[in-house]
Amino acid sequence: IYSVTYSLYAVLIYKTLCPTTRELPANQSSISSVTECVLRFYGEQKDETYIAVLCWILLVLFTILHIIVTVTKIIHYQKRSIADKEIILNTLIIISFFLITFHSNPLYHTEDVPCLDENLPCFASKITLGRYQYHAAGIGVALTWLMQMYFLAKVPRFGKYIEIDFN
Q1: What order do you get walking across the sheet with 122-130 strand by strand?
Q2: What does the angle CA 92 – CA 94 – CA 98 come to, to the nearest 5 degrees?
Q3: Is residue 90 within 8 Å of residue 71, measured between CB atoms?
Q4: Long-range residue pairs from 80-87, CB within 8 A, at least 24 positions apart, any chain
């Protein structure tokens, strides 16, 4: 569930709702380049925006559990946790989560936009994404699916078909 939620969030935010451009403004370098976009809770992309916000909320909850499990393993394994590939992979996934999700709070509405129906307010939220966050999102998606393959390799029924050796 975590891998699907993470992937769905990354695709919706970084590809569908806030795609980046290849061209950089003259006053920005590739490192400091930012993309500003507006998440609209109305109109054509309303459904995608609500799904992205739902994924963000679920990712926050899942990552809290993920942190608790990883910290518990680190405490249990102590010095062996430094070389344990599963703990390293979990830590990288947690770091990538923080890199891609805390650009701004998507629950905070910055703009009131007039709607077709004057009785209903239309909300939008402006977010700013750094160029590095697009790269972190791609790497994070790959890491979550690698972790999923690692878990499937441990299942006796599927393990013989999956060749992942972290040891």
Answers
A1: 34-40, 122-130, 111-113
A2: 115
A3: no
A4: 85/166, 85/167, 86/147, 86/150, 86/166
Closest to 140 measured CA to CA, from 1, 19, 6, 4: 6
Which pTM does this prediction carry? 0.75
Structure tokens, 101? 């999700």
Q: For the chain, what is the radius of gyration of the CA atoms?
A: 19
Q: Return the pLDDT at 161.
A: 65
What is the phi/psi pair of residue 62, to 5°? Answer: -65, -40
Each residue of 81-139: pLDDT tens digit? 777 788 888 888 889 888 888 666 555 555 555 555 555 556 667 777 778 888 888 99
Q: What is the pLDDT of residues 47-92, one digit of tens each?
A: 888 888 888 889 999 999 989 988 888 888 877 777 778 888 888 8
Residue position matching structure tokens 């004057």: 118
Determine contact, residues 9/56, Cβ cutoff 8 Å: yes
CB 36 within 8 A of CB 127: yes
Residue 36 · residue 111 · CB < 8 Å: no
Query: Strand 111-113 and strand 34-40: pairing?
Result: unpaired
